Amino acid sequence: MNSARANPINTFAMHGALILYTLIALFPVFVILINSFKTRKMIFREPLALPDAESFSMVGYQTVMKQGDFFLYFQNSFLVTVGSLTLILLFGAMAAFALSEYRFRGNMLMGLYLALGIMIPIRIGTVAILEMMVSTGLVNTLWALILVYTAQGLPLAVFILSEFMRQVSDDLKNAGRIDGLSEYTIFFKLVLPLVRPAMATVAVFNMIPIWNDLWFPLILAPAEETKTLTLGSQVFIGQFVTDWNAVLSALSLAILPVLVLYTIFSRQLIRGITSGAVK
Amino acid sequence: MTALTLTNVNKSFGTVHVLKDINIEVNEGEFVVFVGPSGCGKSTLLRTIAGLEDVTSGELRIAGEVVNQTPPSKRGIAMVFQSYALYPHLNVRNNMALALKQAKESKETIEARVAEASRMLSLTDYLDRFPSELSGGQRQRVAIGRAIVRHPKLFLFDEPLSNLDAALRMNTRLEIANLHQQLGATMIYVTHDQTEAMTLADKIVVLRDGRVEQIGSPMELYNNPANQFVAGFLGSPAMNFLPANLLQDGNPNTLGVRPEDLFLSEDGLLQVTSKHVEHLGGDTNVIADCHGHQITLRLFGQHAIDAGQSLRLGIAEGKSYYFDAAGARLS
Ligand SMILES: Nc1ncnc2c1ncn2[C@@H]1O[C@H](COP(=O)(O)OP(=O)(O)O)[C@@H](O)[C@H]1O
Ligand SMILES: [Mg+2]
User: Fold this and answer.
1) Which chain A residue has its CA at the smallest distance from B133's CA?
2) The whole model's pTM is what?
3) Are B71 and A177 inside 8 Å of each other by CB?
C-alpha cells in the first residue's frame, strides 16, 4: 500500500484540509439559512447567532409566499434548468459521438469550431440574440431561455463528452455492429451508459450557472409569467430598502432544488458501471 | 469450396497505407492463422473482412459472394475480440442471444442455440450472471459463445487469448482447437504469438508491414521459409542468423541455423563461448558468443555446461539456410 496514504499524520492532515474546506464552503449557506429564520433586527444585530425563541421569525418566508407568484417563478426556473440540461446532454452527447466515432471530412475543424464556443462568452452576443428572439416571437417565453442556455452549454459538453467517448472500447461498438445493432442502439444502449459519469459532470457544471443566471431572464423573459426565481427575488432588493428577510428566505428555498439535482447527478458521478464490460 | 477470397485488397487510412495488395484464399472448414508482429495490420485485415472497415481497393468474397458493400451483420461472420467486448448491461444469456434477436429468430431457436453453445463452453451455470461477475476466462468463453450461437460461415478471432494468463491460455487454445473440430467451421485467427499459430493452424499467413510474406502449412513454413523474416519469426527459440563467411567458405550471404539443428562436436565448424545457460530439464538452451554474434543452441536432455566455456558446434546435415542481403532465401 502507498505509504503516504497509510501514514496517520498524512491521513489526519488530508482530512483536516478537506473538513476545513467544507466548512468554508458551507459557511455562507449556513449564514443564509439561519438568518432566514430571524427577525430583521436580529439579522443585523447578531448575524452569526442561531435563531432562538426571541429572535425566531418566519416573516421572510411569509412575505415570499404572499408574493404569490413565487411558485410560478420556481416552476419556471425548474423547467428552464431541466429543459436546458436535457437538451445539452442529448445534443452534446450526439455531437460528441459523431465527432469521436466517425471519420468524415472536416471532423477536426468541426471539433475546433465547437470548442471555440468555450472561449467566447455567449453574453457578447446578447444584442443579436435579443433581436433574433424578437423576430422569432420567442421573447418572454421559457423557450428563449432554454435555447440560449443550450447554446451556452453545448461547447463544453461536446468537448468533455467526445474526450470520454474516444475512450469507450471500439471492440464493444464493433461487437454491436456485427450483432446487427443500429448506430442509435449502439449510442443509447452501449456508449451512453459507459460515459454516465462524464454526463453527470457536464450536468453539474451547467446546472448551477443556469439556475442562478439573472442576465438572460432579465433581458429575454422579464414578463411576470416567465420570471425565474433569481429574477423574481429581485423584487425584494430595492434601491433604498431591501427586505432582507424575504431575500434570505427566497435564497434558502432556491438552494433546495439544486441540492436535489446535485445529489441525483453526483450519485451517477460516483457509480462505476464500466467494470466487466471490457477486459 | 472457398470460404473467403481476398483479391488485391488494399487499405489506407488517409495517407497511411496499411494493407498492401493482400491475396488470400481460405477453404471451407480451414483454420487459418494470420500471424505477424504488432502493428503489421492483422487487426485491420480482420476488421476489413468483418466489414468494420471498408477496403480502399480490391475484392472481398465470402462463400463466393462479393461482400465489399455488405454491412457486418449481413456477412455471415462472427467475431471474438481481444477485450471480450461483452455488453455490460446484459447477462450472459442475453449477451449470446442479442444477435439472434436482432436477426428476428424465433424464441425456440434462440433458446436452443444458447443452450447448445453454453453446454459446449460449460457456461450453463452462469447464464444469469452479468459480465462483471465473471472471471477473465469465463468472459472469453462467453465471447466465444456469442460467436457460436450465430452459426456463422466464418469465425474471426482477434488475439482472443492475449488477455489470459499462461495456464488459461493453453487450456483455451485447446478448447478453440476442439471447437474447430466439433463445428467444422471456417476460422480465421489473428495472433502475434508464433506458438499459437504453429499449434492451431491448418494454414498460416505471415504478415509484415501490411504485406503477405508467405502462406502455407505450419511445417511448410518451418521447413521451407521463403525469406529471412519468416524463418526468424516462426520457431522458438528463433533461428540464428550469422554472416556465412564465419564458416570460412567466403560466402557473402547470411547463414540461418535453427537452435535445435546445432550440436556439440569436437571437429565442429563454429567456435563459440557460452555466455548463459538455461536448464529447462527436458532441454538445455545455451546462449553463446560466436565472434561477436549471439547464437542460441538448443540441446535435448540435461548438459553440464558452464558460462564461459568454449564449445565447438556442428550444423546438422542439410539444415543450413542462406539468405541474401535483402533477406530473400537462396536455394
Ligand atoms: N483507424 C486507424 N487510423 C489510422 N491508422 C490506423 C487505424 N487503425 C490502425 N491503424 C494503423 O494501422 C497499422 C496496423 O494496425 P493493426 O491492424 O491494429 O496492427 P496489428 O493488429 O497487427 O497489431 C498500425 O500502424 C496502426 O497505427
Ligand atoms: Mg491487433
Assistant:
1) A276
2) 0.82
3) yes
